[in-house]
Design brief:
Elements: E1 4-5, H1 8-12, E2 21-24, H2 34-43, E3 48-51, H3 63-67, E4 71-76, H4 83-90, E5 95-98, H5 101-113, E6 117-120, E7 134-137, E8 140-146, E9 150-161, E10 166-167, H6 176-180, E11 183-194, E12 213-216
Parallel strand pairs: 1-12, 2-3, 2-9, 3-4, 4-5, 9-11, 11-12
Antiparallel strand pairs: 6-8, 7-8, 9-10
Length: about 240
């Protein structure tokens, strides 16, 4: 099975359809599959449901799909950095399914593991629990959450081999690995691509069996979402 494609547009060409559900990896602007997101924008597909921890920022990440109004619904945890997101949501143009961050991660992991639902204490007694089953375990209420499984997962990895074995780096390991397991098709953009067998099996984070397509994106832009620095201290001689 040929897994390596020349570019993101080619890798997604026969996968994208209107109304599909897409998982998009990353945390903030760290580890987001920007090249694949740009290819989705170029395709023009619409009415997308996107599962992602956040919605990027204005003009970058998933924010560019909000600009073109290709996203109909977001299933997310944190969306506070995107003004356009807020405007579309408040205007009723964008549907939102909020999740506590840990619950979102577990819903994705459960979907990849074939677990249809689970119970958690997080969200009990809040708006998150409205309309959901609540059951007591050990005398403590828990709310039922369902697993998530997508038509397509797009992820960003630091390294891959031609068989699709993936290695993630630092913060990019937050959502990319679980999303790679929870979709019918997983497409990975990778910074470094090596031949099969060149990655130590003990260093593999996501086995290649979960990955159907690979695109190499060397030297991708890596933006900082918020840069916080201390003010320069003035000395008496300054």
């Amino acid at each position: 099975m040929r897994k390596v494609f020349q570019n993101a547009v080619e890798a997604l060409a026969d996968i994208l359809t209107d109304g599909m559900t897409i998982m998009s990896g990353g945390f903030g602007l760290c580890g987001i599959p920007m090249t694949l997101i740009e290819a989705i924008r170029a395709s023009g597909v619409r009415d997308l449901t996107v599962v992602s921890n956040n919605a990027g920022v204005d003009g970058y990440g998933l924010g560019i799909l909000l600009e073109t109004r290709q996203i109909r619904k977001m299933i997310s945890s944190y969306v506070g950095e995107n003004k356009l997101f807020a405007e579309q949501y408040l205007a009723g143009d964008l549907e939102l399914e909020f999740n506590p961050q840990g619950t979102l991660a577990e819903r994705i992991r459960a979907g990849g593991a074939g677990i249809p639902a689970f119970f958690t204490r997080t969200g009990v007694g809040t708006l998150v629990a409205e309309g959901k089953e609540v059951r007591a375990f050990g005398g403590i209420d828990h709310v039922m959450e369902t697993g998530l499984f997508a038509d397509l997962a797009i992820v960003h990895a630091y390294k891959a081999d031609t068989e699709g074995n993936l290695v993630f780096r630092k913060t990019a390991r937050n959502f990319n690995p679980v999303m790679a397991t929870a979709a019918r098709v997983t497409v990975a953009e990778v910074e470094h691509l090596v031949e099969a067998g060149e990655i130590d099996p003990d260093h593999v984070h996501t086995p290649g069996i979960y990955v159907q397509r690979i695109v190499q994106v060397p030297n991708p832009e890596k933006r900082i979402e918020q840069r916080t620095v201390r003010p320069v201290r003035q000395t008496e001689d300054a």
